[in-house]
Design a protein that fits this description.
Elements lengths: L32 H9 L4 E7 L2 E6 L4 H10 L7 E9 L9 E9 L4 E9 L4 E3 L8 H12 L2 E3 L51
Parallel strand pairs: 2-5, 6-7
Antiparallel strand pairs: 1-2, 3-4, 4-5
Length: 204
């Protein structure tokens, strides 16, 4: 039986059309529609745009996070209308300031492309809540608050979601959090506390 040859499609990244360049858009920040739009409409909030492994990340000022995300959602030429995730990274010992990065993952359903928005926040500072824009931000922001202690200003019900509400030992995903918590505890069936683990990270 004679085999039919199937043409191999050209890589999406080879296209010069901005919205047909893979799952993250153009890898050149100067050619990316979202980068261009934020630079134009939020020049004071724009910090930088970086590409790593074809993934576009736009860093903005913390105070402008809600306005920028609302713009990316409502702009008819962009339409990042799906909030994929909100998380954070503790940059302790990796840089001087700010300590945390809040990371917002967006997805454009009609364009089929992703975008990452980052903003830096110091310990004790607040970040504008995205709940007024995306209802799905509610539990994401509660998880970030629970694990990192980052407060989202304007959140309707900011309380712990994974740990008990009366948990008084801080936030476990901070890099200075002790591996076994701040207190010795006794396992059921034992009289002595579990030996503590001493790591290289200093305790604050």
């Amino acid at each position: 039986m004679e085999q039919q040859e199937h043409p191999v499609p050209a890589p999406a990244s080879a296209s010069r059309v901005p919205w047909q360049c893979g799952w993250w858009g153009p890898t050149d920040p100067d050619q990316h529609p979202a980068v261009q739009a934020i630079r134009e409409h939020f020049p004071e909030a724009f910090v930088e745009a970086t590409t790593f492994r074809d993934e576009m990340t736009i860093r903005i000022q913390r105070e402008a996070l809600r306005n920028v995300v609302a713009f990316l959602r409502e702009n008819p030429a962009l339409r990042y209308n799906h909030l994929t995730d909100i998380t954070a990274v503790d940059m302790l010992y990796l840089r001087e300031a700010p300590r945390f990065d809040v990371v917002v993952q967006l997805y454009s359903i009609p364009r089929r492309q992703r975008l990452r928005i980052k903003c830096g926040v110091e310990d004790g500072e607040t970040v504008p809540s995205l709940v007024p824009i995306f209802a799905g931000a509610n539990w994401f922001e509660r998880e970030v608050f629970d694990m990192f202690g980052i407060v989202f200003e304007g959140h309707p019900d900011l309380r712990r979601i994974l740990l008990p509400e009366d948990w008084d030992e801080g936030h476990p995903l901070r890099k200075d959090y002790p591996l076994r918590g701040y207190r010795d505890y006794v396992q059921p069936g034992y009289e002595s506390p579990v030996p503590r683990i001493h790591g290289p990270l200093r305790r604050l």
